[in-house]
Specification:
Number of domains: 2
Structural class: alpha/beta
CATH superfamily of the largest domain: P-loop containing nucleotide triphosphate hydrolases
Helix content: 25-40%
Bound molecules: adenosine-5'-diphosphate, magnesium ion
Strand order of the largest sheet: 6-7-8-3-9-10
CATH architecture of the largest domain: 3-Layer(aba) Sandwich
Oligomer: single chain
Order of helices and strands: EEEHEEHEHHHEHEHEEHH
Low-confidence stretches: 244-250
Strand content: 15-25%
Length: 250
């Protein structure tokens, strides 16, 4: 059974259809990649799921709850956490406190001491343990993305929506990130990840959904997607996206 299912999701901005009837489903425990050229509608889909933007048409069900009319706070409380493509930390709070906000939001009634301990554990998990007392403004962009991830994990969500959190990583950091996703998978967390880096998509996702101009153009296992003519065509003249798929096996 699907944990999250969208049918006919449509969202226009002015005359532009950012999403033109997208259908998708994510099963519990699955790690699904959401890819497509720039402007394909990937972030808009995450915004529609999380209630940041209300879909014009379509239905979105999460664990039996219809999301399309719920405000973002209620959707988050159902157990959906996201990261933002442009990190949005609370600048006046420390790194630790930023994660504590996620913990306390997601697990209401957690005593502060327990929330701090949980936040520390999550910071260690994402490799930010030694930055806990810093302010977000002293973090690099890569560290800020990890902070976003830590806040999302800290909330205890069942479903994580990750929007290009791996951009700009060194090969070593990429390996760490792949290991981290493996551990999230072991915890039974379901992930829908927008990602341009084919290396990581090919290694961690069991299924890939491809959007182009706000429509599904393909869906399948990584190896199928890498040789899908429609997908290759969508990327031609666009970004280098699908290259790197061939060396992703190792
Ligand atoms: N808030 C917005 N206002 C106007 N247009 C938007 C807004 N958000 C996205 N769009 C447009 O919708 C299309 C899809 O954008 P987006 O979902 O960000 O693409 P992706 O994440 O796949 O690169 C783009 O043409 C973008 O310019
Ligand atoms: Mg985007």
């Amino acid at each position: 059974m699907s944990l999250l299912e969208g049918r006919g999701i449509t969202k226009s901005f002015g005359g532009l259809a950012a999403l033109a009837g997208v259908d998708f489903a994510v099963r519990e425990g699955e790690i699904v990649g959401l890819i497509g050229p720039n402007g394909a509608g990937k972030t808009t889909l995450i915004n529609a799921i999380t209630g940041v933007h209300r879909a014009d048409r379509g239905t979105l069900a999460f664990d039996g709850h219809e999301l399309t009319r719920l405000p973002p706070e209620r959707i988050a409380r159902l157990g959906i956490a996201r990261t933002f493509q442009i990190p949005q930390p609370f600048h006046t709070l420390s790194v630790l406190q930023n994660v504590m906000v996620g913990v306390v939001f997601g697990r209401r009634g957690t005593p502060m001491k327990a929330a701090a301990a949980e936040a520390r554990a999550v910071l260690d998990f994402v490799g930010l343990g030694d930055k806990a007392s810093l302010e977000p403004q002293s973090l690099t962009i890569v560290e800020l993305r990890r902070l976003e991830l830590a806040r999302a994990i800290g909330s205890g969500a069942r479903l994580l929506l990750l929007d290009e959190i791996h951009a700009g990583l060194t090969p070593r950091e990429l390996e760490d990130a792949i290991a981290m996703i493996g551990k999230l998978r072991e915890r039974g967390i379901t992930i829908l990840m927008v990602e341009h880096l084919m290396r990581i998509i090919m290694r961690v996702c069991e299924r890939i959904i491809v959007l182009d101009f706000g429509k599904n153009i393909a869906e399948g296992a990584p190896a199928e997607i890498a040789r899908n003519p429609d997908v290759i065509r969508a990327y031609l003249g666009g970004q280098p996206a699908i290259q790197g798929a061939s060396d992703a096996g190792g």
